[in-house]
Write a structure and sequence with these properties.
With 372 residues, the chain is of the alpha+beta class. Among the domains are: 130 residues; 86 residues. The chain is 49% helix and 13% strand. It has 14 helices and 8 strands. An 8-stranded antiparallel sheet has the order 4-3-2-1-5-6-7-8, covered by helices on one side. A hairpin with a 7-residue loop joins strand 1 and strand 2. Helix 1 crosses helix 5, helix 1 runs antiparallel to helix 13 and helix 5 packs antiparallel against helix 8.
Length: 372
């Protein structure tokens, strides 16, 4: 029973695990990939006067305020362009309203704009949305959540079936029999499954946790349209003030509303906190009408459960370590798909072997005495 459940769950989820794992492995190196794909973004002369974020946001509101409800961006390093992602009200469960705009920080000129879901506009944005939703909106996120759940079920069923062999795998006493391809793939499947069990549990659970809201009914209802509203306070001033509201706060991500009802949100990290808390765990929210502080979240002072939840992003992407951890994650991200593939090969070869044995079974001959 456990083997049958394990086999069918693995087969059904295998192709999607390969796609999710491969795209996730590529995203671990999105910065060098983006530098290679768009070198002009990083070749601006550093040290020159920059257009203020207030001016850049004003340009965005004037051009796109009627089409989108918010814009977000990472604070760029000196010599990099301003890259904004604009979000709008989605009207279908199969799509997202996302738009990318690059602005030259020296002149305020728009360098690039286009649909974020288009591969020609931004390969990195396309890859990010493919990884978390297959580029088909909340329906895709829901499906990926189901794939993650099927992986959990597959791992548990495999653990129950192969439990007696775990000690042999951990002590490398299970032979990789090169004389038989079937036995080789079966042993390889067990080795990869056992050693990757903890890694897969961490990566897929943290990924599932971050998109868990798609299993709530509210996520499938569409909010009513909002009226455009220009921010009445200085974004640059809010970023500066945020540093004094959270001790050791280093802001690096900003979300600015282009419509009524939403706050200015500035996310960042605490320079003295653990690297596990580096995923924009702390935040400050301002009222876009008068600049009053609406909320301050200091991740270092949050309850234990919130600290654990805040660490999930770094656990998911391996951001708490150096290049070696990134490489381990990149390879590990391919393991679930490899497990499904190797499991399928074992099952397929065994099925062919059984079919061949049945076909070659000698027929029973009847002698004349037997016939009589």
């Amino acid at each position: 029973m456990f083997l049958s459940l394990h086999r069918w769950l693995g087969l059904c989820a295998g192709i999607f695990l390969l796609l999710i794992g491969f795209s996730g492995s590529l995203l671990l190196f999105k910065s060098p990939i983006d530098r290679w794909a768009r070198p002009e973004r990083y070749e601006l002369q550093a040290g020159k006067p920059r257009v203020s974020l207030d001016s850049a946001c004003s340009i965005l509101f004037s051009r796109y305020g009627s089409r989108f409800t918010s814009c977000s961006f990472d604070l760029p390093n000196d010599g990099e362009v301003y890259e904004f992602t604009l979000s709008g009200r989605s009207e279908s469960i199969f799509s997202r309203s996302r738009y990318v705009v690059d602005i030259d920080p020296g002149s305020g000129r728009i360098l690039r704009e286009g649909d974020a879901r288009s591969l020609s506009t931004s390969p990195i944005h396309w890859l990010m949305y493919f990884h978390d939703s297959f580029n088909v909106g909340i329906a895709g996120m829901f499906f990926i959540g189901l794939v993650a759940l099927s992986l959990f079920a597959s791992m548990i069923s495999g653990l129950l079936f192969y439990g007696r062999r775990i000690l042999d795998v951990l002590t490398f006493r299970l032979p990789l029999n090169s004389q038989s391809k079937t036995q080789f793939f079966r042993a390889l499947h067990i080795y990869a499954g056992v050693w990757a069990l903890v890694f897969n549990t961490v990566v897929f659970f943290t990924g599932f946790w971050m998109i868990r809201s798609v299993f709530e009914p509210e996520s499938w209802s569409f909010a009513p349209a909002k009226s455009p509203a220009r921010v009445a306070v200085s974004i640059d001033s809010c970023i500066k003030r945020s540093r004094g509201l959270v001790p050791g706060f280093s802001p690096d991500f900003v979300s600015v509303p282009l419509a009524e009802g939403d706050p200015i949100e500035i996310d960042g990290n605490n320079v003295t906190s653990s690297r596990l808390m580096d995923g924009d765990a702390s935040s400050v929210m301002f009222d876009p009408r008068d600049g009053s502080v609406l909320e301050v979240l200091d991740a270092t002072k949050a309850p234990l459960l919130k600290k654990i939840s805040a660490a999930f992003w770094q656990l998911h992407i391996g951001g708490y370590g150096g290049p070696l951890v990134k490489i381990i994650y990149a390879v590990g991200g391919l393991v679930p798909g490899v497990l499904s593939l190797s499991g399928y090969i074992v099952w397929w070869k065994r099925r062919r072997l059984y079919a061949a044995l049945r076909f070659q079974r000698p027929a029973i001959s009847l002698t004349s005495a037997d016939a009589g």
